[in-house]
Amino acid sequence: MWELFWPLRIGAALVIAEPGGHRDPGYLAGLLADERVTTVHFVPSMLDSFLDEPGLAERLPALRRVVCSGEALSPALADRCQAALPHAGLHNLYGPTEAAVDVSWHACRPGEPRVPIGAPITNTELRVLDQHGRPAPIGVPGELCIAGVQLANGYLKRPALTAERFVPDPYGPPGSRLYRTGDLARWLPDGELEYHGRLDDQVKIRGMRVEPGEIETALLGHPAVRAAAVTVLAAGAGHTLAGYVVPADPDDPPAPGALREHLARQLPAHLVPAVLHAVAELPLTSSGKLDRAALPSVPVLDTGPDESGTQFVAPATAAERAVAGVWESVLGLERVGAADDFFGAGGDSIRALKVVARLRDAGYRLELAQLFEHQTVRELAAALAEGPAADTAPAVPFDLLGSAVADAVRSRWPSAVDAYPLTALQTGMLFANELDGSGATYHDVFTLRLAGAAYRPDVLARALARAAAVHPILRTSLHVGDFDEPVQVVHAEATVTVSEVDHRAAADATAALAAFEESEKRHRFDPAAAPLLRVFLHRLPDDEQALTLSFHHAILDGWSVATLATELLRGYAGGSEPAGAAPVPAYRDFVAEELARRSSAESEGFWREVVTDAPGGRLPRLAPADGAGIGIVGAVGVLRTEVDAGVAAALGQAARTSRVPLRTVLLAAHLRATALLTGDPDVVTGVVTSSRPGTRPASGCWACSSTPSRSGYGWTGPVGRS
Questions:
Q1: What stretch or stretches form a coiled coil here (predicted)?
Q2: Domain assignment of residue 714, given as a range
C-alpha cells in the first residue's frame, strides 16, 4: 500500500514495470535508469536475479534505497546487494496483507549474520506469543501477532476463518483485536524481531516437530549460501528432511559436511537435513516467490564429498554394498560410503531396528547389538554372517504352562489354540487396573480422522477379521486369578465387530469425537473376555469419517497400534497384504524369551550386580509455604519446556562424538541431574525398553517394564564433561 500512496504524499512519480517485466533483469535495470528511480521494491528472489545484471552502480546513480519484503532476506543476498549498490540503503520489511502489508522494518548493515525483520512501524504493536497465548521471552520463538489501526476487518464472507485469525487482544485496551499471522518469530535483545518461518509449514519427522523455515534461516547464515529452501521427502515408509542451497559462488559450492557442521552448532540434531543439495537456482512461482512444491526430488548438482564432508569411499564387498544399500533406504540418503557412521548419518534406535530387519530379509544373520558395536558400513559388514538364523524347534501349544494349568485351560476352552503365562508387564497393568477401580487405567482410546474414502463399514469389518486371524493377541483373554498362575489364552475365534456411529448432525465434529472418546473410556473391559478391542467407524459432516480403536494396553503397545491401524486402513482403502509376506512374529516367543531370562543364572547374576548395594536416594521435595503437609506426597506435576537451540545442538554433537544415540546422552543428563539432587553420584533410574522383534510389524505389548540403569562411574567420561 505504501508504494502507491508515498509518492503522492511527497510529489514523486510512481513507475510501474510492464507485465512480466520483473522477470527480465536487463529490462528492469534499463527502466530504473531511464526513469531515474530513487526507490525500488523487490521480492528477495527477484532481487537475486536482478543483481546478476552487470554495472548496476554506474547505471543507477539516482537509486537511494532498495526495499525487500515478501520472503526471508538472506545475509548473503543482503551483502551482495550492498556490494553491488553501495550508494543505496537496503531495508528489509515484513507484513501480511491482513495488516495493510508492512508492519516492521530493518535497516540492513553489511556483514550481518542474520537479517531481522526489524521493529514495528508507527501505530503498530507486535507480540510474540507462545502456544498458550503468553508473551514469549526474548530469544524464544513464538507466533507473531499484530495489533494496531491497520488491521483488516476480516475475510470477506468467511466468518469462521475471521474468528480464527482475528481474535481479541488480551494485552490491549478493551475491544482491541489481534491478528494471528501464523508466522514464527522471536525478539532479539535489541528490540527487533527475527523471522523463523511458518507455523503451518511445520511437519513431524520421527515424532519431532520440524519447522523448515527455521532450518532455512540457519542455512542462510552460512557465508557460502546465497539462497536456501528445505522440504520433506518420502524415504521408504517414513520421511526425511532435504535442504537445497544456491551457492554464493557457483564454482565453489559448500560441502554438505561443512553445512551440516554449521547447522549442528545452531539447531537440534533432528533439524539437520539428512540430505543437502546444491542447486543452480530455486524454482519460483509466477509472482516471484519460492515454489516449494517444484523443488527437485533428486540433486541437481553433485556437491562432491559424501554427507560427512569427507572423501567418499565406495563399498567394496557384497556385504558392504548390502549394508550401504539398506542404510540408504532407511536413512533416506542418496549414497552411503564404507566409512560412514550410522548414527553420524542420522540413524537412531528406531531406524536401527529397520536396518536389522532388512538385512535379515536379505539373508544375513544380525543382532541389534551388533549395529551399536559396529557403527560404520565396513565394520558392520565384516561382522555379518550369511545364511538363515539357527533353526528353532517348532512351538508346541500350551508347552509354556505347567501340565496342570494347561489341562485346566483346555478343559475350560476346548477350542483354545494356545495359552501361556502373562508377562510381568501385563500382570502389572492388570493389577493397576484393578487397583484403580474405574477400569480407565491402561484403557486406551485412539481416533484417526479419515478423508476421501468411501463409507464402507463392511470392507473395514473384513480388514479387521483378517487382522484378528493374523495377530493372535487380538483373540487373547487375560486371566490373573483363574488358575494357579496368571495366564493368557489364545482363542480360535474372537470376533471384533465394527460399530457405526453417526455424527453428521453434530455442530462440532471434533467436540463430538472427544465426547465419544471420554464416554468410551468409561466403558471398561473385562480382561477375561476376548477380544479386548473395540472398533468404531464414525460418519462426520462433509463426508468425512473417523476410526476409533479402543483397547486394553495389555494387548497392544504404541507401535502395535500403529501397525494395526495401518493394516486396517490399507484394507479399508482396498489394499491387501503383499503375497509371500513373512510370517508375523508370535507374541508367545516373546513370552518364552522372558521366561528363559527369568530362569537364567547368567541374567540373574547380571542384574544382581547392577542392583546390589544400590543407593536409595531421595529427591528433595518443596514444603508448602505454611509448613503443613511435610512428608506427604501430593499430586505429581509435569513441567514441559523446550530446550534452547544451542543446548540441543550441543547434545546432538555430544551424541555424535560419543557415537551413541541422542537418547543415551539424555539418559546420562538425567542421571547426572538426579545425582546432583540426591547428593550421591551413584544413582539408579528406570529406563523403559522394547523387546519388539525387528523382522516385521507384530501386535502385542512388547515393551519391557522399566529396567534399572545405574551410573556410579564418577562422571569422568566425555558425556560427563559435556
A1: none
A2: 607-617+640-721
